[in-house]
Specification:
The protein has two domains: 3-21 and 322-410, Immunoglobulin-like (Sandwich); 24-320, Neuraminidase, CATH 2.120.10. Strand 30 and strand 31 form a beta hairpin. The strands form nine sheets. A five-stranded mixed sheet has the order 28-34-33-30-31, covered by helices on one side. Strands 1-26-25-24 form a four-stranded antiparallel sheet, with no helix packed on it. The protein has a four-stranded antiparallel sheet with strand order 2-3-4-5, with no helix packed on it. It has 412 residues and is mainly beta. The protein has helices at residues 3-18, 324-328, 353-356; strands at residues 23-30, 42-46, 49-53, 65-69, 74-78, 89-93, 96-103, 109-117, 122-126, 138-142, 145-149, 152-155, 158-160, 164-168, 173-177, 189-193, 196-200, 213-217, 222-226, 238-241, 246-249, 262-266, 271-275, 287-291, 294-302, 308-320, 334-337, 340-341, 345-350, 359-364, 370-375, 380-383, 390-398, 401-410.
């Protein structure tokens, strides 16, 4: 082996070993949203693609629907909402997207429910929320149910709400359930991890922005107070959930200033850790979603020094040696041999390989792009001679979930 290549291999291998337990994140720019800059849009994920619907562009609410394909980093337009809408709640349920409540085209508050079918590219009207029309509600989807709570039924100063409602997507019916204990709120952020819902931040009746975090258990409709988010209280942040953790980024504070801080929440430890600040233009009232184990966010608005609306879009790439211990509880072990590959290919071993079922192996570059995808077999040989030099992440994916991850170095 040439001396220069040997030094490169040793350097890469040392770097790989040194960072084997280090965790970091990187914000990577992606194709900008094609519509005008906006805030308060609805988002949902269908068939491996992210959707951004409606929003407010500084002049009026809009009705556009755009679809983002993470494999090609491209946007395409779909059928618009039946009417313009902004600042409500959205879900993904049973292969369809839902847009609920919010402001209508003339700033009237609404309690209507719209359902999008990606197979026919059409919208349908469903049973409206049997409660006050509102905007700024929080909500999430678990199983066949969509959950919606809180929000604002008045002006910027309220009154706010503390109720909670459950929508059954199979029967198109609603039922009232317990809401978050304590103060009413609007502009809070929601996400789901491992079958439980989380609500963070928002504006309270005192007109102060809170750092509170609440966990919802659908088994008994109970709420549990969790460790508050570090930093300032914020409204309309972006939330992006991984399989067993989540990131909350950006928002607006009490002084109307945009906050670009980002924090990673670990439910198992009930702890937050700081990650690199959001590098985009705003993120307040932005659009964010999770596709598989990839998370995206962008858009949003600023007030100071003047109102501005943005359409930049970013992916938050998790850079570590799997994050198996932190993300997946070390419940599976993936080995790649050799760890540094100068020519030919690598073998992928997984201790639970025979039990994985219809799984695939994905090779991913440092920016999160999938370089190769192939069915998984324990001990699988993959020819990587066509890949460029550098570090390549490996993940085994089963039914949309990442079961194990690892990495190796391609040395040329």
């Amino acid at each position: 082996m040439p001396r220069s290549l040997l030094l490169l291999v040793l350097s890469l291998a040392l770097n790989l070993h040194t960072n084997s337990n280090a965790q970091d994140f990187d914000w990577v720019p992606r194709a900008s949203y094609p519509g005008t800059g906006r805030m308060g849009a609805f988002t949902f994920v269908l068939d491996g693609k992210g959707y951004v619907a409606g929003g407010y562009n500084g002049s009026s609410a809009v009705a556009e629907l755009w679809c983002y394909d993470p494999l090609t980093d491209t946007w395409s337009q779909r059928a618009s909402l039946p009417s313009a809408r902004r600042h409500g709640t959205s879900w993904t349920l049973n292969g369809r997207g839902y847009v609920v409540c919010g402001f209508g085209p003339t700033n009237q508050k609404t309690n209507t429910v719209l359902e999008y079918d990606p197979r026919t590219n059409t919208w349908a009207t469903k049973t409206p929320l049997p409660a006050d029309a509102r905007y700024g509600s929080h909500g999430f989807a678990i199983g066949q149910y969509g959950y919606l709570g809180g929000g604002n039924i008045g002006s910027a100063t309220g009154p706010f709400l503390s109720d909670m409602w459950r929508y059954n997507s199979l029967s198109d019916t609603w039922s009232a359930i317990p809401g978050i204990p304590g103060a009413e709120r609007y502009g809070a952020t929601s996400w789901v991890i491992d079958g439980k819902g989380y609500v963070q931040g928002g504006c309270l009746p005192s007109m102060s922005f809170t750092t509170q975090l609440w966990e919802f258990d659908p088994a008994d409709w109970s709420w549990t107070s969790k460790t508050p988010r570090p930093g300032d209280g914020l409204s309309y942040t972006m939330a992006m959930s991984f399989l067993y953790s989540a990131v909350v980024a950006c928002g607006k504070d009490d002084a109307d200033y945009n906050n670009f801080q980002a924090f990673h929440y670990h439910p198992a430890a009930n702890q937050w850790t700081a990650i690199p600040n959001y590098p985009g233009e705003s993120g307040w009232g932005g659009a964010s979603f999770t596709i598989g184990d990839r998370v995206f966010g962008g858009l949003g608005a600023r007030i100071i020094p003047q109102w501005q609306y943005f359409n930049d879009f970013w992916e938050l790439v998790k850079i570590d040696d799997v994050g198996v211990d932190e993300e997946f509880g070390n419940r599976s072990a993936l080995r790649v041999h050799p760890s540094v590959c100068a020519e030919g290919g690598v073998h992928i071993f997984h201790e639970h390989g025979p039990q994985v079922g219809e799984a695939v192996v994905e090779l991913v570059d440092a920016s999160g792009r999938v370089l190769m995808r192939t069915p998984f077999v324990d001990g699988r040989y993959i020819d990587v001679s066509s890949l460029a030099a550098g570090t390549v992440a490996v993940r085994i994916v089963h039914e949309g979930r990442t079961m194990a991850t690892g990495r190796f170095v391609v040395a040329r």
